[in-house]
Amino acid sequence: xxxxxxxxxxxxxxxxxxxxxxxxxxxxxxxxxxxxxxxxxxxxxxxxxxxxxxxxxxxxxxxxxxxxxxxxxxxxxxxxxxxxxxxxxxxxxxxxxxxxxxxxxxxxxxxxxxxxxxxxxxxxxxxxxxxxxxxxxxxxxxxxxxxxxxxxxxxxxxxxxxxxxxxxxxxxxxxxxxxxxxxxxxxxxxxxxxxxxxxxxxxxxxxxxxxxxxxxxxxxxxxxxxxxxxxxxxxxxxxxxxxxxxxxxxxxxxxxxxxxxxxxxxxxxxxxxxxxxxxxxxxxxxxxxxxxxxxxxxxxxxxxxxxxxxxxxxxxxxxxxxx
Length: 323
What we know:
By secondary structure, the protein is an all-beta fold. The chain has two helices and 23 strands. A hairpin with a 5-residue loop joins β13 (158-173) and β14 (179-194). It is globular and about 50 Å long.
C-alpha cells in the first residue's frame, strides 16, 4: 500500500510512521536527531545524505551523484555511449566536505568542488566541469514515492525518495572531437537522507524501458536494505509496490549476466552488462566497495493480469559500506 502524501518527515518531535508515501516529502529536516549524543555527533558519524541522478536512454547511460557521508563527502559522474562504446568517469573525496549545519532537502543547493546541483520549482540543473563537461537538466514530477524505513540498533530511520522516467536533457563535451547528447523521459532520481546501519549492504536495480505494447516501464528494486520497502514498478507513470526481490549473479559482477525477479512473480528480468563503475574506497573512517554494472535488460512483467515482454536500459549494484 502507498500511503498519502506528507509534507514533513519530522512531526511531533519524531519521524512519521514507517511506510511508503506518495510523492516527495519536501521537508526532511533531521536536526532533532542529528545532535543526539553530543553536538552534531549523529550528523557527522551516522547521518548519510545523497542525490543520485541516473539517465537511461538508447544513446547514453549517465550517472551523477553528490554524497555527504558525514566525516567525508564524495561525488562522481560517468557516462557510456552505446554508439561509440566509450566510457568516461571521474570522482572526488573530500574530508568534511559539507559544513556542520548542512541539513539539505532535495531542492537545497548542493556543491562539492566542481560538482553542483541546483533545483527550482522541481527543475534540477546538474553540472560537472572536470575531465569532461556534463550538463543535465531534469524535471521532477509528482509520481515518485518516499520511503521511511527502519534502521538498526539505536539509529532512528532511513528516508529515501525515488522517481523514474523523468524528462531530461543531457549534454557532454569531452574536449575532443566527440560530444554526446540525449533527451526524453529517461531520467531517475534517488534522494536519500537518514541514519543507515554502520555496516550497510544492498543489491539494487534501476531501469527505464518499454513493453511490447508500447507502455513505459520503470523499476526500482533493492534487497537487504530499507526492509525492501522501496520496490516499486511504474507503468505509464502509475506506480505499484512490488514484493521482495531475488538477485542472482556471480563474480565478476561487471562481466556476467544478472537475473533478477520479484517473489510475487510480477517481474522477471535479465541484465547484460556493457560495462561498470566500480569503487573500493578506504578512508579509514569510512569504507565503500561496490560494482555498478550498466547495460541492456529484457524480461517480462505482469500488467492487469497479462504478461508482457519488455526491453530496457539501466543499472544494477552490489554494494558494501562501513560508514
